[in-house]
Amino acid sequence: MYFFFSGALLSVSSAQTRQFYFVNTPLNWRDAQSVCRQNYTDLATIENTADVDAAIVALSNYTGKAWIGLHDDIVNSWRWSLSDSSFYGDGESTYWNWYPGEPNNYDGQQLCVHFYGAVNDLWDNYCSVEYSFVCYTGELPFRFY
Questions:
Q1: What is the total count of domains within the chain?
Q2: Which SMART domains match (predicted)?
């Protein structure tokens, strides 16, 4: 399987139950979500510290901001992009490691979430801002036995 993104750098990391893919093509949150859904499972869902570590590895040496799948849908407040509740274990759909003072929903319009490549804290931001992003698959990574 091949993925082509104009000017993109693609990096892969895996956690216990999923693989994370960093796409170094700046897009707004909705367009990033669309790319992830077309080529992977969705924008990254960070359910625990192991996922944080795996997502950071996927970011490699990238130190900028990257979109992940957390967003505020206004109706149900903060939730992950992947809406299939059967995918999540106990408490996993509400694992959020906010930076102190976040989310602040500045101007009532910061409804999407990013994190820095070397930092595991989450920040809310305007969905229209263009950042690189992290996708994932819900598939088990290939293992040699």
A1: 1
A2: CLECT (SM00034)
| Domain annotation covers residue 104 | yes
- The span from the CA of 132 to the CA of 70, in Å, is 15
The pLDDT tens digits for 19-32 are 999 999 999 999 99
Give the number of other Cβ atoms within 10 Å of residue 113's Cβ.
26
Considering 13-27, 49-63, 83-97, the range whose residues carry the highest mean pLDDT is 49-63
Residue at 18 is within a domain: yes
Domain assignment of residue 108, given as a range: 12-137
CATH number of 82's domain: 3.10.100.10
In a domain, 4, yes or no: no
Instruction: Find the length of the chain.
Output: 145
∠23-24-29 over CA atoms, to 5°? Answer: 70
Both tokens assigned to 42:
């969705």
pTM, to two decimals: 0.77
| Residue 109 pLDDT exceeds 80 | yes
